[in-house]
Amino acid sequence: AMLGLLGGEGGTRRTLEKIGNATLQEDRKAALVELKERAEKDPIGVASMSMGLLTSLIPKVRDDVDEVRAILDTMLACLSPEASVHGEEKCKESLSTNSKLYPQDVISQLLELLEERDWNARFSILRILHVLQEVHPAVVQQGTLSSPQGLARLMDVLSDEREIVRNEALLVLVALTEGSQELTKIMAFEGAFDVLFRVVKEEDFGSVIAADSIEIVNNLLHANPSNANFFKEMSCVAEHVVPLLRKGIEFGSTGRTSNTRCLFDQMLDVLGNLLTATSDLQSMQTHLGKSGVLGIVVEGALHPSMGYESRGKALRLTSLLVWKHSPNRLLLSQLLCPGKSGSVLSALLKLCLELHPEEGDKSVHLLNASAVQVFKCYLSGNVDGQQHFAASLMPQPPMDDQEPQEEQQLGRVVMAALLGSSPEGGGGGDVRTTRVWGAAHVLMSVLLGNSVCQEIAAATPLELPMSSAPPDYFLQSLLQRVSRGVGQMESSSADGLDARAETFILHLLCVWTFECPRAAGVVLQHPATVMWLVGLMGSNAVKSSTDGGAISLHLRGAAAILLAGCLDSLGDEELQRNVVNIVEARIGLDTFEDLIVQVCKSDALQAARRREPVLTPPRPVREEVEWKFLLYDSDVASLAAQVQSKLNKCLFRIMGAAPSPSRGKFSNDEVARERDALKEEVELLRAKLDELAGADGMQAAAGGSGEGGG
Description:
Blueprint: H1 2-21, H2 25-41, H3 43-61, H4 65-79, H5 83-86, H6 88-98, H7 104-112, H8 119-135, H9 137-146, H10 150-157, H11 163-176, H12 181-189, H13 192-202, H14 208-221, H15 225-233, H16 236-252, H17 258-277, H18 281-290, H19 293-302, H20 308-322, H21 326-334, H22 344-353, H23 361-379, H24 383-391, H25 410-419, H26 429-447, H27 451-458, H28 474-490, H29 500-513, H30 517-524, H31 527-537, H32 551-569, H33 573-586, H34 589-601, H35 603-610, H36 634-655, H37 669-691, H38 696-709
Helix pairs in contact: 1-2, 1-3, 2-3, 2-4, 3-4, 3-6, 4-8, 7-9, 8-9, 8-11, 11-14, 12-15, 13-14, 14-17, 15-17, 16-17, 16-19, 17-20, 19-20, 20-23, 22-23, 23-26, 24-27, 25-26, 26-29, 28-29, 29-32, 30-32, 31-32, 31-33, 32-34, 32-36, 34-36, 35-36
């Protein structure tokens, strides 16, 4: 074996001597062909001995295409030998060892050779660069930057009519533009956007070449504000992006879905990179809105043939287009569905509420979460939009002369979903949970931070009163709906029902009643409602088939947060004291406070607090695929933390004592002694009242005292 190895090295050395000493061009050419054959058999040995000679020889033989081709073929054989001959492990070893022999100056030298039109030479150079990028991408990037015409040469290859050469150039550029701000800036100002979109339009829509070209465009825009602004100033959105988006939707409706979806998704990524990379988000949102992007993206989101992944991405992009941007919000509210009279908002609300299990839970739940995100970004901080939606909660009188506007029905659709009725009937399992989840989160966005909308919703009747009898109100009916749902779950005959829907409704009520005295009064003014909430806080009977009963803590905690928030928002001190007395008598104030602390420390709520709130640019979050296990969003988590922080002072205020700075909880020994003393005084008073029960006046006083302590 040693003799064979020495013979191989000796043969390579003799071949190299022939190349170096050849005086005739034909002799050198024959020796180069021989060296290539040796490289195919021993890539590591030949590379270590010949690389210096080969790179120094390139400038001397550049006029002879055959010699250049032989040198490049030898270099490629050393880097990427045939796996069928040497095996996978040997190929990896060759690449790892020989790639170190290609410094930046060699990369620059190879890029200059791209000026040659010979297809074999161009293809070999591009293959060498592509292989080197797998192990040393930074070296290739730096070598490209150090070459005066390197990038220009690569861009020129994109105009090569030979498909095999152009494909390889695209692969090189995809890797080259990943993570190099300097390179991407140079490429953009070299006219890369126009060149790449020309390639896309020349190709069959949905081809691999078109997809690679758009991937390079995305690399050029990603986290690059100067390129994003340059893209906008060059009118690339109107000239390139809008036509390709329209074409994607058009082809998607004709059955060419697989590749079309891929390219449609990439065009959405282009828009997403524009919005997240720009230094002036408002200006970019305005530009895209005026270019007609919003309407096209929404059309794609509502197009059933585009697939749930693509539609979810389009919905998230819609969220970013309307986030804190009044003109785009107004435009979204005015859009109509293509070929239909219904509004886009109505169609988006339908996406929030519907479940299509035949398509698989993960993708369709992502679609629900993305549609809800649109409403959050559309409504948050949008006072006019919130009030318009809240007004649509009110029942409308019949109109004989014209059809009611679709937008006026949005609130009624949400009410129906929350109260359990639906056009299809039905309502069990995931379908019911999905409908309640979507409706609750949409209505939270209407009510959050808007006291006027909270008041409107609290005053909303289920139907227009037809007689002098008081109507049934939405808030009271919703409380009754939750009470019935929990009662069914607590019964032994209803094992396995999902408690998540009731938890979502309680979260909605927490947002609704927070800092809204009227809504808080509706919850607390009925003793039966207070008793039910307190009973739920102390109950361990609620189980869920989906999580082994773990959701019981969050359902009970939601009741505690609702009650605590109402106490803090309420202005009636006597009613506050009565409620606190009920809590203390039934479960104790310690248990009440501890329950809220447990919920606020739970993994589910802490994860929600770590997630981005709605008032940040939304991004595709894969975590939201599992939305049905995310009991809290960032708004509810933040509200729970506020309620917890206020509870201690609120209870001290209601009980008529001032909190000590050193006191953190009601379990403090000093407070416990004070409470025990008060209990003893109450017992003494009750005993005296019992003794005087024979007198009529004292009987009335005793009755009043009993009612007040109830």
